[in-house]
Amino acid sequence: MDSYPKISVVIPSYNQGVYIEETILSVIGQSYPNLEIIVMDGGSTDNTVEVLERYSKVLSSWHSRRDKGQADAINQGMRRSTGDILCWLNSDDLYLPGTLLDVGKRFQGTVDQCHLIYGAALTMDQSGERVRGGAVTGEPFDLDRLTYSDYVVQPSSFWTRKLWESTGELNIKYEYVLDWEWFIRASKVSKFEYIPRFYSVFRFHPLHKTSNGGETRRREIRDIVKEFSSKYWVELYEDVVRHYNLIIRTRRLLNRWKIPRADRLTRLLYSNIYSKKSKKPEDLQIVWGMIGS
Q1: How many CA atoms, within 13 angstroms, populate the side-chain half-sphere of residue 187?
Q2: Distance (Å, rounded) from C-alpha 238 to C-alpha 224?
Q3: Contact present, 124 and 131 (Cβ < 8 Å)
Q4: I need a surface site. Which of 15, 23, 24, 77 has the fewest CB within 10 A?
């Protein structure tokens, strides 16, 4: 047991009683020999507390009280944590079997350094009448790209306590890009290591926060790009946001007409119209992928 570094998993939660039990079980089911599980619930009004009480014996720490949002909940959990390796898992996501054992082995001998590893994630889309699956494979680390594209898969990311302490806590003013902003700051302290392995399941559903971000999320994305990226990317993002309503109306019209692959066709139409704004056509695809709908 002593040969495995202690891993602290912080689970921020708010009204995710439908999913949180599966999340907790996915962590417990790792059978990792040196594990700390901390749940920070923001005062849920559903059955979350009932679930947490049921698993209280296997949770290292938990509470249910109002906080200042997800970033604040995670920061509180990190302050309570005692692990050598830190991470957080949202209360509707899951770890795949063997994840923490693999992570623990990779960090053996490096817990005293600033180090972060990240892998890929399977996706589970439960937002419609059918369950659909996919994957977010991630990409090898590129410091410049991270300033304009959030390609580091958060639930598949793990880092040393030293990196957390050297970078500082999450910025609580962000609701949707809190992980991206922290990753950018952390990347200035330590190079990230990409692991070509699936570590987690990223779930989409009607209550999923990112899916309901709307204008607030788009504004936060622009704020991050303005703060960390180049003028070229700032102007490209502003151009996409400026024409956002037109793009959405076009896509909805194509969907109404039952045109196959309406999303792809919309992006192609947009790329053709505004290609003079970008150095490469795929740059617009990156921006549109970040802005979303």
Answers
A1: 22
A2: 12
A3: yes
A4: 15
- pLDDT one-digit tens code per residue, 58-86: 999 999 999 999 999 999 999 999 999 99
Mean pLDDT of the chain: 89
**Closest to 146 in 3D by CA, of 188, 113, 85, 198:** 188
Place of tokens 């054992």: 101
Tokens 């040393």 identify what position?
Answer: 160
Counting residues of the chain whose pLDDT is more than 90, the rounded percentage is: 69
Q: Is 118's pLDDT higher than 60?
A: yes
Domain ranges of the chain: 7-210, 230-291
Beta bridge partners of 275: none
> 201 near 126, Cβ under 8 Å?
no
* CA dist., res. 249 & res. 28, Å (int): 45
Backbone angles phi, psi at 230, to 5 degrees: -85, 165
Nearest to 117 by CA among 146, 142, 141, 150: 141
pLDDT at 205 over 70: no
Specify whether the CB–CB gap between 47 and 17 falls below 8 A.
yes
Q: Contact 80/61 with Cβ under 8 angstroms? A: yes
CATH number belonging to the domain at 7-210, selected among 3.40.50.1000, 3.10.20.90, 3.30.70.120, 3.90.550.10: 3.90.550.10
Structure tokens at 50: 């009932």
